[in-house]
Design goal:
CATH architecture of the largest domain: 3-Layer(aba) Sandwich
CATH class of the largest domain: Alpha Beta
Strand order of the largest sheet: 3-2-4-1-5
Number of helices: 8
Order of helices and strands: EHEHEHEHEHEHEHEEHE
Distance between the termini: 46 Å
Number of strands: 10
CATH topology of the largest domain: Cobalt-precorrin-4 Transmethylase, domain 1
Radius of gyration: 19 Å
Length: 211
């Protein structure tokens, strides 16, 4: 069988949100590569583990050297198809076969908790990106935002209020998939003073939105 590398979506960190195929591949892997929080959360000691925090380039070189001899699984947050390490891997491992195993993203989980459809939502990530969030909020009945350390829910709410955007609700999903997950809904003016956990995703929607 042709050697390949597996890119596995870890969902939202709780094993209940991971696919069975993902767990089976992790159990049969020789080498696990991923963020520290993902690797430490697995509580596995019988496999070689490489933290991405130690450098993407080093991980790439390691994969190139050993993928034919070892089963390598690369763990990424949520779903690999949405703002993950997958793009970097495809660019830098162009001659190595890759299998992608999907995961359940925080976006899917939050919309499910809200009992809300998301096929008609605008979805953006603010991780290291500058986006006119007010323009998107004005034109979107539902706007889902992956926040970062600078564009927090409170900062986003402040920008929207300053842009005179009204009649919107902000739903904040914090630590989704963990035992202490929290879902909060509030008007934008309230959200300005809300101190959210750094691990969060928000949905901004019209107050009269239909499911």
């Amino acid at each position: 069988m042709m050697s390949k590398v597996y890119v596995i979506g870890m969902g939202v960190s709780n094993y209940e949100y991971r696919l069975l195929r993902a767990d089976n591949l992790i159990l049969t892997a020789d080498i696990l590569i991923g963020a520290k929080r993902h690797l430490d959360g697995l509580d596995i000691v019988d496999k070689q583990q490489i933290y991405l925090e130690n450098g993407f380039d080093d991980a790439i070189e390691y994969i190139k050297k050993f993928y034919k001899q070892k089963r390598i699984c690369i763990l990424v947050s949520g779903d690999p198809g949405f703002h993950s390490f997958l793009g970097y891997l495809k660019r830098n491992l162009s001659n190595i076969p890759i299998e992608v195993v999907p995961g359940i993203s925080s976006i899917q989980v939050l919309f499910a908790k809200l009992q809300m459809m998301w096929h008609d939502a605008t979805i953006v990530s603010l991780h290291g990106r500058k986006i006119d969030i007010a323009m998107l909020a004005k034109s979107s009945e539902k706007l889902c935002v992956l926040t970062d350390s600078e564009m927090t829910p409170s900062v986003i709410a402040k920008e929207l209020v300053e842009a005179e955007i009204d009649k919107k609700i902000m739903a904040i999903g914090e630590r989704l998939g963990y035992e202490d997950e929290k879902i909060s809904k509030m008007r934008l003016a309230e959200a300005i003073n809300y101190d959210a956990d750094p691990l969060n995703v928000v949905v901004i929607y019209d107050e009269n939105v239909q499911i």
